[in-house]
Amino acid sequence: MSAAFRSNETVDFAVVGSGAAGGVVAKELALAGFTVVVLEQGPHMQAKDFKHDEFGVLFQSALTNNPKTQPVTYREKEGDKAEIRDAVNYCRMVGGGSVHFTANYWRFHEVDFEERSRWGAVPGASLADWPIRYRDLEPYYAKAEYDLGVSGLAGANPFDPPRSKPYPMPPLPVKSSGVIFERATRKLGLHPFPAPMAILSQPYKGRLACQHCGFCNSFGCEFGSKSSTLAAAIPAALKSGRCELRAECYVRKVEIDAGGRANGVIYFDKQRREVFQKARAVVLCANGAETPRLLLMSTSNRFPNGLANSSGLVGRNLMFDAGAIACGVFEHPLNEHKSVQVTRLIHDYYDSDPKRGFFGGGGIDARSQAYPVVFALFGLPMDAPRWGVEYKKMLADYFPRTMMLLAHTTCLAQETNSITLDPDVKDAWGLPAMRVTFSWHEDDLKTLRYFEKRMLEIFDAAKPRRAWSYPPGFDLLPSRHLMGTCRMGNDPKTSVVNADNRAHDVANLFIVDGSSLVTSGRQQPTATIQALAYRAADRMAAMARRGGI
Amino acid sequence: MKISRNPDRRRFLRTAAGVAAIPAASCTRAGRRWRFLTDEQADTIGAICDQIIPPDQDPGAVSAGVVHFIDRQLKGHYAYLQDAYIKGVVEIEQAAQEKFGKRFSALASEQQLDLLREREKTAFFRMIADHAMQGFYGDPRHGGNRDFASWKMMGIPNPPVRGRQQHDLTKS
Questions:
Q1: Which pLDDT tens digit goes with each residue over A376-417?
Q2: Which of A77, A160, A530, B50 has the smallest C-beta neighbourhood within 10 Å, fewest atoms?
Q3: What is the CA radius of gyration of chain B?
Q4: How far from the centroid of its chain's Cα atoms is residue A215's Cα?
Q5: Residue A477's pLDDT is what?
Q6: CA-CA distance, A348 to A197, in Å (whole number)?
Q7: Which distant-in-sequence residues (6+ apart) come within 8 Å of B29 by Cβ?
C-alpha cells in the first residue's frame, strides 16, 4: 500500500521529480527502509492512458512541458535578450523522461569519464574529468539493467567497456533498417551490434514483452514494456508502504534551516495551494533544466545567489542533445513504422581522434524515420515538393520505404551555456520562467559534419534509391537531453555536487539527474543517469544509517 | 457545397430517421456543421486544403475531414490562430474576385493553383499547409484522417496494435 504522510510529519527524504533518476532513488530508499515523499510536477498517468496520438503528443504537449503554462525563453549568448522559444522539452509526468524516451540504453565508455586527461583542454570549453570512473559505476549499470529490464547482447560490441554481467534478456528482433545497416557497415569493415534497449524482449518481473506497436520514441508504452520508472520502479516504491507519490505537485523552493541544512520543500499542490513538506534530507531529481532552476529560485539570506551555488556553477555547463541525420529511400517497403525504433548501431567512431582535427565522437544507429505527420511535414528530401499532387504521391511512396541513420554525438560543456531565471517572463504559477542560453561549440558542429559524411558512406554501401542528409547545425532545438548544470566534482570551487551526488554547500541536499553529468557521453544519457541514481541512493542510505541526515 | 459529409454520419442519420422522428434539437445540431468556421470560410479552406492534399486514387484533404480538424482546433489548441485564418481567407477571396471574378472554390484548378503559388511563402499558406498535414496524417480522433485514409495510403495497418486492446489482439 502506498504510504500517506502529513506535510508537518518529517519524512526521511523528500524527492523532487519522479523520472529516470527520481523513480529509482524513491524505490531504492523506500526498499532500504526510509520514508519518502516524491513530489512530481506532472500527472500520474498509466499505461492505459497512453495513446498512439501523434498530434496530441507531438503538437499539443500531451506528455511534455507545455509552453503555454510554462514558457521557456532562449538566447544564443549572454547579453542578448531572450525570447520565448521551445528550447527545452521534457516529459512532465510520473516517470519523466524514462516514459517517452526511445529507450536507447548505452553505457558510457571508460573514456567518457576521463576525456580531459586523455585529450587535453579544448579551447572555449570546460571539458573536465569526472570524480568517478567507469569502474565505480559499472556495478550500478548492471543493477539498472537487471532491476529495470534491458535487452541486448553482451560482447557484440567490440568497443564496449568491460561488464560484470550479460544483459538480463536477449536483444529485440532486428528490423529492416537493422538488416540494411548491418550489411552495409560490415561491407565497410565496421562493427554493427544489436542495440541495447530498455524495452523488454521477453516477459520480465510480471511485465509484458514488447508488442512491436512502433510507438516508443516520444510516446508512453501502452503495454508497460518500456522500462520506464513508471512501469519498472515506482510500483515497487509504492508497494513498500514507505513511499508516498504526490503527482501534480510543483516544488518552488527548497527550504533551509538556521544551520544551513535543508529541512523540506515548498510546493504548489494540484489546487495551487502552497504546502511545506518537512524532510530530513532533500533529493533533487527534477532534470538538468528544472533542477538548476529550482536551486536558483531557492534563495535565502544565507544563499542569496541560489542554493548550493557557492561555485556559481548552478545552471552552467548546460549540454544538449547533438545529432546528425541522414535518410535513405529503398526499392522495397521497409515498414519501419513497426516495432522499436532502433535495432542496430555502431560505436566505431565513438572515441575522439586527433587525426580528425577536432574534439568529438559518437555512435550511429539505424532507425525508423518519423511518424506520419512529422514525416509529411519534414520527412522528404529538402528539394522535394512541399504540397500538391506530386508531393502526395511521393509521401505514399517514401513513407514505407524510408529509414534514417542518426548519429549521437558529443556536446562540449561551456560555462556560458546555461539555465538561468528569466527576469521578465513568468509561468502560470507566477514563478520566473526558465531562460536558456545556448550556442554550439565549433567542435560540436565539426563533429556533426564528420558524422554526416560517415552516414552517407554507409548509405552508399547500402545502395538505396536515394540518400539525403539535412545540413548539420540545422535547427537542433528543442533538446530533450539536459545535462551538466550541477556538475559533479571533488573541488567545491569547480563543481556543485561531490562524487556521492551530495551538494558541496548543503550537507543533506542531494542532486542526481542529468545535471550531475560532467560530460555528455555520446548522448543517450539515461543509463548513466540511472546508474548514478542507484549509486547515489546507496550513498544516501549509508549516510542516513550513520545518522548523517 | 463542395464539402462532403461524413458518410457514416449520413448513414446514421438516415437509419435514425427511418426508425423514429429525430428530435428537433438533433436536427439543428446535425445542421450546424462547424464549431468556429462559417460555411463560406469552410468552403474556401476546403478548396485550399484540397490543392495541398488533392484527391487522387486516395482521398484528398476534404473527404478525409481536414476542414473538420482545422475547425475543431480553432476552438481548441489553435484558438489563438482564429484571426490569422479569418484574415487569410478574406485576403485570398479578395484576390480571387479581383483576378478571376469568382469565389476561390468556384475557380478552375489551374486558377486556384495560380493564386496559391503566389502565396506559397506567406505565413498563412504555411500555417494552413502544416495544419492540413496534421489533420490528414494525424490520429482520426482529432477529426481528420477519416477512415484512416492517409494511413491506408502509406501502408500503415489499421487499427494499429494498441495497449487498450491487449486482451483481444486478434482484431489488430
A1: 999 999 999 999 999 999 999 999 999 999 999 999 999 999
A2: A77
A3: 18
A4: 18
A5: 84
A6: 19
A7: none
Measured CA angle at A302 (ends A296, A304), to 5 deg: 35
Q: Residue B134 pLDDT > 60, yes or no?
A: yes
At residue A471 the predicted structure's pLDDT band, cuts being 50, 70 and 90, is confident
- What residue in A sits closest to B156 (Cα-Cα)? A337
Residues contacting B107, CB < 8 A, separation 6+? B47, B96, B100, B115
What are B77's strand-pairing partners?
none
pLDDT (tens digit per residue) in A93-117: 999 999 999 999 999 999 999 999 9
A234: which residues sit within 8 A by CB, 6+ positions away? A18, A23, A26, A27, A38, A94, A95, A245
For residue B60, give the chain A residue with the closest CA.
A392
Q: How many helices (H) and strands (E) does chain A have?
A: 14, 17
How many helices (H) and strands (E) chain B has is answered by 8, 0
Would you state the cell numbers that stand for residue B111, as one nine-digit string? Answer: 486558377
How confident is residue A549, by pLDDT bands cut at 50, 70 and 90?
Answer: confident
pLDDT, residue A52, reads 87
| Inter-chain touch A387–B51, beta carbons under 8 Å | yes
Nearest CB to B53; choose among A55, A337, A392: A392
Share of chain A above pLDDT 70, in %: 99
Q: Which residue has the cell 573514456?
A: A111
Predicted confidence band of residue B21 (pLDDT cuts 50, 70, 90): very low
Nearest CB neighbour to A55, from listed B53, B139, B169: B139
CB pairs under 8 A between A and B: 94
Using the structure block, give the residue that is written with the C-alpha cell 569502474. A135
Length of chain A: 549
B-chain residues within 8 Å CB-CB of A332? none
DSSP string, A319-375: B--EEEEEEEE-SS---TTSS-SEEEEE-TT-S--GGGTSS--EEEEEE----HHHI
- Interface of B to A at Cβ within 8 Å reads 51-54, 56, 58, 77, 113, 120, 129-130, 133-134, 136-139, 141-142, 150-151, 153-156, 160-164, 166, 169
Between the CA atoms of A176, A182, A183 and A187, what dihedral angle is there, to the nearest 10 degrees? 160
A206-264, pLDDT tens digit by residue? Answer: 999 999 999 999 999 999 999 999 999 999 999 999 999 999 999 999 999 999 999 99
Q: Taken in order A21, A22, A27, A33, is the CA torsion positive or negative?
A: positive
Side chain identity at B137, as an amino acid letter?
Y
Q: Which domains does chain A have, with CATH numbers?
A: 1-46+89-150+221-322+483-549 (3.50.50.60), 152-195+323-409+445-475 (3.30.410)
